[in-house]
Amino acid sequence: MSANTFPAQIEPFKWAEQGFVWAGTLPLSRFVRISREAVGSIDDQLINIDCKLSMDAYHRIVWLSGHVETKVSVECQRCLNPVEINLVSDFHLALVDDESLIERLDEDADFIVLGESEATTKGSFDAPATADLLSLMEDELLLLMPLSAKHEFCEHKHQPAVEELAEEKRDNPFDILASLKGKLN
Ligand SMILES: [Zn+2]
Questions:
Q1: Distance 173 CA to ligand 1 centre (A)
Q2: How far is the CA of 138 from the centre of ligand 1 (A)?
Q3: What's the count of helices (H) and strands (E) in the chain, helices before strands?
Q4: Among residues 88, 90, 114, 89, which one has the least CA distance to residue 182?
Q5: What is the dihedral of CA 17, 136, 113, 21, to 10 degrees?
Q6: How far does residue 81's CA lie from ligand 1's centre (Å)?
Q7: 3-class DSSP state for residue 138?
Q8: CA torsion sign, 124 to 174 to 41 to 133?
Q9: Do 107 and 73 contact (CB within 8 A), yes or no?
Q10: Which ranges constitute the DSSP H helices of 47-174?
Q11: Residue 129 — very low, low, confident or very high, per pLDDT cuts 50/70/90?
Q12: How far is CA 11 from its chain centroid?
C-alpha cells in the first residue's frame, strides 16, 4: 500500500488516536453516487481531499474534519445541456458510537452515529466500529447537490408550465442523507 492510498475502511477510534491525516486527490469515479449523476466523461475529474481524525478522549468522540472539493457536470434542468457544478465542503463531523454521547456535543455540532449511516458500522464486542471515510465525505457533497441544476442563463427546451410541474413532483433522492446526519436544535 503506497503512503498516499486512501484507506477503504478505518476504525475511527484507533485511527484518531494515531492521528490519521490524509491530503491528496482521487479520481471522481471513487464517488460512485456523484458519478452516477454526471453527464459526459468524468475521466479527467478529480476530488481534492484534506482530512484528519482527532480524538476527544474525555468525551469519547472522534472528530472527522477537513475539506473536500470536486466538480461534476450534470444535466441542466432548463436547456438539458451539461452544466458544471462545484461541490465544496468544509466539514467538522463528530463520530459517536452511542447516541447517548450526542448530548455532550455543542448545540450546533454535526454528528454521525456509527452504525446508523450506510458508511459506518457500530462496534461490538469482537468487531470494532468501522467507517468508510470516503463515503462519509461523499455524503457531505451529496447534500450540496442542487435538486435542479441550471445554467445562470440559458433557454428552456420545454414549455415552462410542464417543466415546473415536473420539478415540483421530483423528490430529492438524498433526503435520506439529511435525515441521517444529525443536527441538534
Ligand atoms: Zn441550461
A1: 21
A2: 25
A3: 5, 8
A4: 114
A5: 10
A6: 6
A7: helix
A8: negative
A9: no
A10: 133-142, 160-169
A11: very high
A12: 18
Q: Strand runs (DSSP E) across the chain, as ranges?
A: 21-27, 46-56, 61-75, 82-96, 110-113, 120-121, 130-131, 182-183
C-alpha separations of 90 from 18, 58, 65, 152 in Å: 22, 25, 8, 25
Number of residues in the chain: 185
Beta-ladder partners of 48 = 25, 69
Could you give the CA distance from residue 158 to residue 78 in angstroms, rounded to a whole number? 7
The three grid cell numbers given for residue 101, joined into one nine-digit string: 454521547
Q: How many CB atoms lie within 10 A of CB 69?
A: 16
- Calculate the CA 127 to chain-centre distance: 25
Please write the tens of the pLDDT for every residue from 15-64: 999 999 999 999 999 999 999 999 999 999 999 999 999 998 887 899 99
The mean pLDDT value for 149-162 works out to: 79
Distance CA 171, CA 185 (A): 25
* CA 86 to ligand 1 center in whole angstroms: 15
